[in-house]
Amino acid sequence: MSAADPGSSRVLRLLGPGGPLARALPGYEAREGQLAMAEAVERAFEEDRVLLCEAGTGTGKTLAYLVPALLSGRRVVVSTATKALQEQIFTKDVPLLAEHLGVPFQAALMKGLGNYLCRRRLEEALVAHPVADSRGQLLARIEAWARESETGDRAELSALRDDDPIWRDVQSGSDTRVGQGCAYYDRCFVTRMREEAQRARLVVVNHHLYLADLALRRGGARQGVIPEHDVVIFDEAHQLEEIATDFFGVRVSTARLDALGRDARRTLQALGVMTKGATPMAPGIEGEAARIIDAVTQRAHALFGLLAAAMPALSHQAGPSRGGMAAGEGRMPLPEDAWTEDADRRLGELDAALEALAAFTKVHEKQGETREEITAIGRRATAVRNDLARVVSPRKSDVAWIDVRNRSCAIGVSPIDLAPVFRDELFGNARPWPRAIVLTSATLATFAGAGDKSPFAHAKRRLGLLVPPPARDPEGLEFDEDAPVGFDARPLELLVTSPFDYRKNAGAYVPLDLPEPNDPAFVDRAAARAIELVRASRGGAFVLCASTRNMRGFHAVLRDARLPYPLFCQGDRPKTALLEEFRAAGDGVLVATMGFWEGVDVPGRALRLVIIDKLPFSVPTDPVVAARYRAIEEAGRSPFVELSVPEAAIALKQGFGRLIRARTDVGVVAILDKRLRTKGYGKGLRAALPSAAPLHDLDDVRGFFQLVVGVSE
User: Which of 337, 472, 510, 710 is the most buried (most CB within 10 A)?
Assistant: First the structure.
């Protein structure tokens, strides 16, 4: 069947020029690329296949997979990398199709548990903090919101900062849920969310939740979080490997252990086992409980402080210390020799304290004094012990690391290669579901790898859809490409280019007179250039930085310049609130990091300039990245060609893609990294980007803004 013939399938008839969407929506356009993608998705469903599809910006990929999904008659899970896209699908696209598609269905939205308020933990926090103090007042406002909320989703709390620590005290989580024994079970927001998902035929989740569910089932759990389903569609599929790295590794931090101590104390206070302010000197059970809880937190900080101090490279780059811990930026390798005799001793002391806490909960179980809340504390203590054991003795397939910040320290292990996990747990035939899988993104393909026969070779290799083939098959015929594992046939592949006219509507500026990003003068010089660019555009700019350090540097320079445009910085307010204010301003300037490189949609004149500070290569000193480089080198291949360049190309396309979101959008993308034009690999990276009009200097930029965008200084 052909996408050019809308009568060839029901999906194409519904999306085509004479379909219900075209009749109902003013200005609706039947797009050839959208029809081609919808047809490929429909085929993947019918044949129980894997589909890899890059759909350029403006394709309309969401409707291209939702329409065949809803017509399939199957239960479908749609998984996105960002909550922003997840909410857009659920609040915009799903209601649109419910109204006009003519197919009855029920849809549900599921987020990670940490997005939902836990009523029990809120009650315990209220007991611990009187209304008179500032935390108590904020908790009271959260309580008032909870009485009105139908979902308990923190996205409704627009006044609460993204990084406000108080949310950690009241959020739900897999380690804090106590199940049907909870006094709030019937009113639980998470329980309600799961019940709605069980009734739905279309369930919209995010990759964090889907992979957490996969990890849970892989660990032997009989029941996961997400309902069983026939089809899964991964939108923004290029992020799957990065997110999976977190869920199939372990992380133990001082913040996690501090939270365990706080929750243990609050739980025991709420159940009357302890009184508020009980100390280790208190008589009886109160003193015993206080001694155990204090031992957990004190011994945790003693161990983590010792490990942090033993990292000479980390100490060298450290900022101000807190609690004996150096403050670095990013993960560092945790070598085997970090476990000195002193570190082993302190680890043993922490393990003993955690064991004592778990034993304390079991004693109360035997005495019949406990409730599920205390049992949950014991489970958490045991889980930390198990995770610490894995960090101390990592598997050959894992890499151990340490991450020290101003306020916390974490140690953990991450898998080096996720391909076997994806191959066994997602694409393998051993699982009864899902039967069909769609992997799509605006940036899934790359031509950066020399010798790649498929534009999806990088994605297939990283996601476990390729394995090294034998030299010959049983009949003696040579293989000319890698073979897929699991599904019966090779993945379907489709590359749909964007329908937008980038040459006409977008300009690309790459200056050659700035220092390279590793030069100490780069941030100041590049930020000064950003000021000139913002003046040329008269605001309406994103300044996207590859690191938090650069973001702060650019923000400081722009702030001191006192430009006549509203200046926003990531972290000042919740992401959704920042975007709303930026759109409303019309001439704002937003400085942000990778969190705004993708999944952010600002169509129209409010965004007419995107500044990218440098090429988004992975940090080579990151222990996970370094371990993956070594594995590729040991296999006799080039990690720069196979991993660094393709990943940078995908990330760069994402950042570039923030500019043009609709046919009428116009503007400039400025990439302040001259390596894009001076290095050999720059040609491949440029080829991955849309064909925008080249702008060679600031005068060209000013002219483009004046003649094409319609603004001038």
Answer: 510
